[in-house]
Structures are given as C-alpha cells and as structure tokens.
Amino acid sequence: MTIVIRPADPTDYTALGEITARAYLNDGLLAFGDEDDWYLEELKNVAKRAAHAEVLVAVSGSELLGGVTYVPDGGPLSEIARPGEAEIRMLAVAHEARGRGVGRALVQACIDRASAAGTGLVLCTQPTMHTAHRIYERLGFTRAPERDWHPVPESPDFTLLTYELTP
Q: Cα separation of 37 and 23, whole Å?
C-alpha cells in the first residue's frame, strides 16, 4: 500500500471529520465519553481547522485513511506551543487503516514541516494512547511532563501528556 500525505481538500472535510470523531469516540478518548461530548463537534469541524492551520490527509488511491492538523509557529489553534514551536493536533487514523504506518506518515509530515521552518514541535496525548506514544518516541519526541495539563476544568482528572521535538 502506498500512503500519500497531502493537504486536505474541502471535499475531504466531511469524511475526515467523521474519521476523527469516530476514532476519538470509539477509543474512549473524549472527556465526557459519549456522543453528547462538546468536543465531538470540534473534531468533526475540519473546515474550521483548515481555515486557521494546515490539515493534512493520508490517502491510498482514493481511500482516505486519516488526517492531522499541523499548527505552525504562532498559529491561532495552538494550545501548548511556545514561540518557536509548531503543534500537532487531532491526529486520527480510520480503524480499518490502523497498523499500516498511516499515523507515522502523518506525524513525519508534520516533523518535516517544522524542520523546514526551523521550529520545534509539540503535541498532547492522552495517557492511554500507548500506540501513539511509541510512534512519537520512535520519531524522536521526548516527554515533557512539566508541560502536561488539564484542558477541561470541570474534569481535573483528565490529563494530557506533552511530547516535544526540538529542532
């Protein structure tokens, strides 16, 4: 299977939004855990992300496999990036495409963009996302526990772990 990473086209937005929402929902990654979770609509809203960041998709032929949001240094969608850092957000791979290198290819595309810009790269992940952690670590990211945070004030036990890659 050949995986191609390219900028998302508006015709990809609905399908990518569904892939992203399904990945988070089915993997139990939402703070409130069900279809009523407020973040689900954010995950589905690819057009909103694409207006303020670079949304990349992974495809094989005409099959959409997954996507990621790359927020360049200073981008309005960054949550934890400091000056001189880009950020990875909302990485998701379709269930049927998992285990085929899609996530790694999407992360590598973000690394390539940050490297070309001369910036570091950061991301947040949930403690249970062990497969993603292995991808990040294999690609050179290191844990930055001093940057871990709690994005949902009403759920103080919901913690996001921070990984960083320095230029």
A: 14
pLDDT of the residue at 36: 61
* Mean pLDDT value across the chain: 91
Query: pTM of this prediction?
Result: 0.92
Closest among 62, 131, 51 to 91, alpha carbons compared = 131
Contacts of 128-135 with CB under 8 Å at 24 or more apart are: 128/28, 128/29, 129/27, 129/29, 131/103, 132/91, 132/103, 133/161, 133/163, 135/103, 135/104, 135/107
Tokens of 67: 């996507």
List residues bridging with 89 in a β-sheet.
69
Mention every residue, 6+ apart, whose C-beta is less than 8 A from residue 112.
none
